[in-house]
Amino acid sequence: MDFQEPVCCFDASDYIGTPDAEPTAEGLEVPRLIAQLDSLYNTGRETEAGDFLLRQRQRAVELGDWRGELSMLSELMGHCRRSGDRALGIRAVNDGLAIIREHRLGSTVSGATVLLNAATTMKCFGHASESIPYFEHVARVYADSLDPRDYRFAGLYNNMALSYEDVGDWAGAERHFRLALAALTNSKNPDNELAVTWCNLAELYDRQNPEDERCTECMEKAWAHLNAEGLLRDGYHAFTISKCAPSFDYFGFFLYAQELRERAEAIYAGA
Q: Rounded distance, CA 139 to CA 157, Å?
Protein backbone atom coordinates (compact mmCIF):
# COMPACT_ATOMS: atom_id res chain seq x y z
CA MET A 1 0.00 0.00 0.00
CA ASP A 2 1.24 3.47 -0.80
CA PHE A 3 1.87 5.81 2.09
CA GLN A 4 -1.18 7.70 3.24
CA GLU A 5 -2.30 9.40 6.42
CA PRO A 6 -4.99 7.79 8.54
CA VAL A 7 -8.52 8.99 7.95
CA CYS A 8 -9.64 11.67 10.42
CA CYS A 9 -13.22 10.46 10.98
CA PHE A 10 -13.89 7.35 13.06
CA ASP A 11 -17.19 5.54 12.57
CA ALA A 12 -17.59 2.52 14.86
CA SER A 13 -20.13 0.96 12.49
CA ASP A 14 -17.30 0.41 10.00
CA TYR A 15 -15.54 -1.91 12.45
CA ILE A 16 -18.24 -3.87 14.26
CA GLY A 17 -20.68 -6.64 13.38
CA THR A 18 -20.51 -10.41 13.51
CA PRO A 19 -16.78 -11.27 13.46
CA ASP A 20 -15.55 -13.68 10.83
CA ALA A 21 -14.47 -17.16 11.83
CA GLU A 22 -10.76 -17.74 12.26
CA PRO A 23 -8.81 -18.52 9.08
CA THR A 24 -8.96 -22.21 8.26
CA ALA A 25 -5.63 -22.33 6.44
CA GLU A 26 -2.46 -23.25 8.29
CA GLY A 27 -1.20 -20.03 9.78
CA LEU A 28 1.64 -18.47 11.70
CA GLU A 29 2.66 -19.77 15.11
CA VAL A 30 2.21 -16.35 16.63
CA PRO A 31 3.29 -17.11 20.25
CA ARG A 32 6.55 -18.65 19.02
CA LEU A 33 7.19 -15.70 16.71
CA ILE A 34 6.52 -13.20 19.50
CA ALA A 35 9.06 -15.04 21.66
CA GLN A 36 11.62 -14.73 18.85
CA LEU A 37 10.79 -11.05 18.48
CA ASP A 38 11.26 -10.47 22.22
CA SER A 39 14.64 -12.17 22.01
CA LEU A 40 15.73 -9.71 19.33
CA TYR A 41 14.56 -6.75 21.38
CA ASN A 42 16.16 -8.07 24.55
CA THR A 43 19.55 -8.12 22.83
CA GLY A 44 19.15 -4.67 21.28
CA ARG A 45 18.77 -5.97 17.69
CA GLU A 46 16.12 -3.45 16.70
CA THR A 47 16.77 -3.44 12.94
CA GLU A 48 16.63 -7.22 12.80
CA ALA A 49 13.33 -7.11 14.68
CA GLY A 50 11.81 -4.85 12.03
CA ASP A 51 13.00 -7.07 9.18
CA PHE A 52 11.68 -10.12 11.03
CA LEU A 53 8.20 -8.59 11.34
CA LEU A 54 8.06 -7.65 7.68
CA ARG A 55 9.03 -11.18 6.66
CA GLN A 56 6.46 -12.78 8.94
CA ARG A 57 3.75 -10.42 7.77
CA GLN A 58 4.49 -11.48 4.17
CA ARG A 59 4.41 -15.16 5.19
CA ALA A 60 0.96 -14.64 6.68
CA VAL A 61 -0.26 -13.04 3.44
CA GLU A 62 1.07 -15.98 1.42
CA LEU A 63 -0.61 -18.46 3.80
CA GLY A 64 -3.94 -16.63 3.68
CA ASP A 65 -3.71 -16.10 7.45
CA TRP A 66 -5.34 -12.71 8.03
CA ARG A 67 -5.31 -13.19 11.80
CA GLY A 68 -1.57 -13.82 11.80
CA GLU A 69 -1.07 -10.87 9.47
CA LEU A 70 -3.00 -8.64 11.88
CA SER A 71 -0.82 -9.82 14.77
CA MET A 72 2.34 -8.98 12.85
CA LEU A 73 0.96 -5.59 11.83
CA SER A 74 0.12 -4.81 15.44
CA GLU A 75 3.67 -5.69 16.48
CA LEU A 76 4.98 -3.64 13.57
CA MET A 77 3.11 -0.57 14.83
CA GLY A 78 4.91 -0.89 18.15
CA HIS A 79 8.22 -1.43 16.40
CA CYS A 80 7.77 1.73 14.34
CA ARG A 81 7.10 3.75 17.46
CA ARG A 82 10.36 2.43 18.89
CA SER A 83 12.33 3.14 15.71
CA GLY A 84 10.57 6.38 14.74
CA ASP A 85 9.71 5.07 11.26
CA ARG A 86 6.69 7.25 10.58
CA ALA A 87 5.90 6.16 7.03
CA LEU A 88 6.01 2.46 7.82
CA GLY A 89 4.10 3.03 11.05
CA ILE A 90 1.22 4.80 9.31
CA ARG A 91 1.10 2.10 6.64
CA ALA A 92 0.90 -0.55 9.35
CA VAL A 93 -1.96 1.39 10.98
CA ASN A 94 -3.92 1.65 7.74
CA ASP A 95 -3.36 -1.99 6.82
CA GLY A 96 -4.33 -3.16 10.30
CA LEU A 97 -7.49 -1.04 10.32
CA ALA A 98 -8.43 -2.46 6.92
CA ILE A 99 -8.27 -6.03 8.27
CA ILE A 100 -10.35 -5.12 11.33
CA ARG A 101 -12.98 -3.48 9.11
CA GLU A 102 -13.05 -6.37 6.65
CA HIS A 103 -13.47 -9.04 9.32
CA ARG A 104 -15.58 -6.92 11.71
CA LEU A 105 -13.33 -7.37 14.73
CA GLY A 106 -13.91 -3.96 16.31
CA SER A 107 -16.17 -5.19 19.10
CA THR A 108 -13.86 -8.03 20.14
CA VAL A 109 -11.19 -7.60 22.80
CA SER A 110 -8.45 -8.72 20.41
CA GLY A 111 -9.63 -6.34 17.70
CA ALA A 112 -9.98 -3.48 20.16
CA THR A 113 -6.46 -4.11 21.40
CA VAL A 114 -5.14 -3.68 17.86
CA LEU A 115 -7.24 -0.50 17.56
CA LEU A 116 -5.57 0.68 20.78
CA ASN A 117 -2.17 0.02 19.23
CA ALA A 118 -3.22 1.84 16.06
CA ALA A 119 -4.46 4.85 18.02
CA THR A 120 -1.22 4.95 20.02
CA THR A 121 0.74 4.93 16.77
CA MET A 122 -1.41 7.71 15.31
CA LYS A 123 -0.68 9.82 18.38
CA CYS A 124 3.04 9.04 18.16
CA PHE A 125 3.18 10.32 14.59
CA GLY A 126 1.23 13.53 14.97
CA HIS A 127 -2.42 12.49 14.82
CA ALA A 128 -3.48 12.88 18.45
CA SER A 129 -6.89 14.39 17.72
CA GLU A 130 -7.71 11.62 15.23
CA SER A 131 -6.67 8.97 17.73
CA ILE A 132 -9.07 9.97 20.51
CA PRO A 133 -12.27 8.45 19.00
CA TYR A 134 -10.40 5.16 18.58
CA PHE A 135 -9.31 5.23 22.22
CA GLU A 136 -12.86 6.02 23.32
CA HIS A 137 -14.19 3.07 21.30
CA VAL A 138 -11.61 0.75 22.87
CA ALA A 139 -12.62 2.00 26.32
CA ARG A 140 -16.24 1.03 25.61
CA VAL A 141 -15.27 -2.44 24.34
CA TYR A 142 -12.99 -3.07 27.32
CA ALA A 143 -15.65 -1.85 29.76
CA ASP A 144 -18.16 -4.27 28.22
CA SER A 145 -15.80 -7.23 28.06
CA LEU A 146 -13.08 -7.08 30.71
CA ASP A 147 -12.86 -7.18 34.46
CA PRO A 148 -12.37 -3.58 35.68
CA ARG A 149 -9.11 -4.73 37.29
CA ASP A 150 -7.67 -6.02 34.01
CA TYR A 151 -4.14 -4.72 33.39
CA ARG A 152 -5.04 -3.72 29.83
CA PHE A 153 -6.90 -0.70 31.13
CA ALA A 154 -3.59 0.77 32.30
CA GLY A 155 -2.11 0.87 28.80
CA LEU A 156 -5.35 2.27 27.41
CA TYR A 157 -5.56 5.08 29.96
CA ASN A 158 -1.89 5.99 29.74
CA ASN A 159 -1.90 6.33 25.96
CA MET A 160 -5.28 8.02 25.97
CA ALA A 161 -3.89 10.60 28.41
CA LEU A 162 -0.99 11.38 26.08
CA SER A 163 -3.41 12.18 23.27
CA TYR A 164 -5.50 14.41 25.51
CA GLU A 165 -2.29 16.17 26.54
CA ASP A 166 -1.29 16.74 22.93
CA VAL A 167 -4.62 18.42 22.15
CA GLY A 168 -4.37 20.62 25.26
CA ASP A 169 -6.99 18.90 27.40
CA TRP A 170 -4.96 19.03 30.61
CA ALA A 171 -7.78 17.88 32.89
CA GLY A 172 -8.57 14.92 30.65
CA ALA A 173 -4.90 13.99 30.49
CA GLU A 174 -4.41 14.11 34.27
CA ARG A 175 -7.61 12.15 34.87
CA HIS A 176 -6.48 9.35 32.58
CA PHE A 177 -2.92 9.26 33.95
CA ARG A 178 -4.46 8.85 37.41
CA LEU A 179 -6.74 6.11 36.10
CA ALA A 180 -3.66 4.38 34.66
CA LEU A 181 -1.88 4.54 38.01
CA ALA A 182 -4.92 3.02 39.71
CA ALA A 183 -5.21 0.28 37.10
CA LEU A 184 -1.54 -0.59 37.48
CA THR A 185 -2.04 -1.45 41.15
CA ASN A 186 -3.85 -4.55 39.87
CA SER A 187 -1.01 -5.59 37.58
CA LYS A 188 1.71 -8.12 38.21
CA ASN A 189 5.19 -6.52 38.32
CA PRO A 190 3.93 -3.03 37.37
CA ASP A 191 7.04 -1.02 38.24
CA ASN A 192 8.23 -0.33 34.68
CA GLU A 193 4.79 0.96 33.66
CA LEU A 194 4.40 2.94 36.88
CA ALA A 195 7.75 4.66 36.27
CA VAL A 196 6.70 5.69 32.77
CA THR A 197 3.35 6.98 34.02
CA TRP A 198 4.95 9.10 36.74
CA CYS A 199 7.35 10.56 34.15
CA ASN A 200 4.39 11.33 31.90
CA LEU A 201 2.55 13.03 34.74
CA ALA A 202 5.61 15.13 35.61
CA GLU A 203 5.83 16.32 32.02
CA LEU A 204 2.12 17.16 32.01
CA TYR A 205 2.50 19.34 35.11
CA ASP A 206 5.60 20.98 33.60
CA ARG A 207 3.75 21.91 30.43
CA GLN A 208 1.21 23.78 32.53
CA ASN A 209 3.62 25.30 35.05
CA PRO A 210 7.41 24.64 35.00
CA GLU A 211 7.56 25.70 38.67
CA ASP A 212 5.06 23.06 39.80
CA GLU A 213 6.64 21.18 42.72
CA ARG A 214 4.70 18.07 41.75
CA CYS A 215 7.15 17.56 38.86
CA THR A 216 9.95 16.68 41.27
CA GLU A 217 7.65 14.51 43.37
CA CYS A 218 6.61 12.54 40.28
CA MET A 219 10.18 12.01 39.14
CA GLU A 220 11.23 10.75 42.57
CA LYS A 221 8.40 8.24 42.43
CA ALA A 222 9.49 7.17 38.94
CA TRP A 223 13.03 6.63 40.23
CA ALA A 224 11.76 4.52 43.10
CA HIS A 225 9.86 2.25 40.72
CA LEU A 226 12.84 1.87 38.40
CA ASN A 227 14.82 0.64 41.39
CA ALA A 228 12.10 -1.44 43.03
CA GLU A 229 13.17 -4.60 44.81
CA GLY A 230 12.71 -7.65 42.60
CA LEU A 231 12.30 -5.67 39.36
CA LEU A 232 13.58 -7.80 36.48
CA ARG A 233 16.33 -5.94 34.64
CA ASP A 234 15.72 -7.36 31.19
CA GLY A 235 15.28 -5.98 27.68
CA TYR A 236 11.87 -4.53 28.53
CA HIS A 237 13.38 -2.72 31.50
CA ALA A 238 16.08 -1.33 29.21
CA PHE A 239 13.37 -0.13 26.82
CA THR A 240 11.56 1.50 29.75
CA ILE A 241 14.79 3.28 30.63
CA SER A 242 14.99 4.67 27.10
CA LYS A 243 11.60 6.30 27.67
CA CYS A 244 12.34 7.59 31.17
CA ALA A 245 15.97 8.76 30.99
CA PRO A 246 15.20 11.89 28.89
CA SER A 247 12.70 13.00 31.53
CA PHE A 248 15.32 12.68 34.26
CA ASP A 249 17.70 14.77 32.16
CA TYR A 250 15.02 17.37 31.47
CA PHE A 251 14.17 17.84 35.13
CA GLY A 252 17.82 18.06 36.16
CA PHE A 253 18.30 14.57 37.60
CA PHE A 254 21.49 14.12 35.59
CA LEU A 255 23.11 11.48 37.80
CA TYR A 256 19.93 9.41 37.77
CA ALA A 257 19.76 9.66 33.99
CA GLN A 258 23.39 8.64 33.59
CA GLU A 259 22.97 5.67 35.90
CA LEU A 260 19.93 4.54 33.92
CA ARG A 261 21.73 4.80 30.59
CA GLU A 262 24.66 2.77 31.91
CA ARG A 263 22.21 0.18 33.22
CA ALA A 264 20.52 -0.12 29.83
CA GLU A 265 23.89 -0.49 28.07
CA ALA A 266 24.84 -3.27 30.48
CA ILE A 267 21.54 -5.07 29.86
CA TYR A 268 21.99 -4.97 26.09
CA ALA A 269 25.60 -6.08 26.44
CA GLY A 270 24.44 -9.09 28.40
CA ALA A 271 26.12 -8.06 31.65
A: 9
Same domain, 89 and 23: yes
What pLDDT shows up at residue 36?
97
Q: What letter represents residue 11's amino acid?
A: D
| Whether 195 and 90 share a structural domain | no
Q: Which of 230, 219, 159, 218 is nearest to 190 (CA)?
A: 230
Query: Final residue of a domain: which of 125, 159, 194?
Result: 125
Whether residue 2 is found in the same domain as residue 106: yes
Indicate whether 189 and 267 sit together in one domain.
yes
| Helix, strand, or coil (residue 91) | helix
As a whole number of Å, the end-to-end CA separation of the chain is: 42
Sequence length of the chain is 271
Section 61-65 average pLDDT: 95
| SS3 of residue 2 by DSSP | coil
Predicted structure pTM score: 0.88
Q: Looking at the predicted structure, is the pLDDT value of residue 1 above 70?
A: no
Average pLDDT, the chain: 94
Q: Each residue of 118-145: b (16+ CB within 10 Å) or e?
A: bbbbbbbbebbebbbebbebbbebbeee
Alpha-carbon distance of 98 to 13, in angstroms, equals: 13
Q: Do residue 121 and residue 3 come from a single domain?
A: yes
Structural element, H or E, at residue 225: helix 214-226
pLDDT at 7: 57
